Here is the input.
Amino acid sequence: MPRVLKLVGLGLGALLLAFTVLGLVLPRDLRIKRSVELPAPLAAVSAEVDDLSRWPGWAFGPEARECTFHGARAEGLRWTCGEVEGALVRTDRSPGGTWIDAQVGGQVDRVRMKIALTELATGTLLVWEEQATAPRVMGAWLRPWLEGARSAEIDRALVRLREHLTPATPGAP
Here is the structure.
C-alpha cells in the first residue's frame, strides 16, 4: 500500500510539473479586434472615444454602478470596483487612432488598446484592437477563455456606445 501511495504522489507531482512547464512555454499574448459601424458622424464618435472622462457612460457595463470613478479627465480615468482598481491613460491621439494603456487589478499585464475611426457615408466605422499579456502559467492555459470573455465585453461596450450615440426617434415608444 505505501508503494502505491508513493507512485500516486510521484505521478501527481510529475503532472503538476508538466502542467507548470507547459504553462510557461504556451503563448500568453491576447489579441482582440472588434469593429462596428455607428450611425453617427465622425466628430460625435471621436468626442466619446478621445475623452476618457466620457467612458463611464458607455464603456463600462451595468456592474459599474457599484464602481467609484475618480480622476476622470480627457486623458485618463481611474476607478475602483470593490477590491479591484483600474486605470486608463490615453497615450497617443493621432489621425490613425487613439492609443490607450490600461491596468486592471493585476488580471492581465500590459493592456494596450487602439481605437481607429473611419468616416463613412452612413456614419463612422470604429475598430477596437486590444493587445495584452496574460499572467504566467495559468494565463497561458486560460488564454482562449480570456480572449473570448474580453471580446464579448468589448462587443457589449460597442452596443452601449451605439445606443448612446443614436438619438431617440421622436414618437417612438
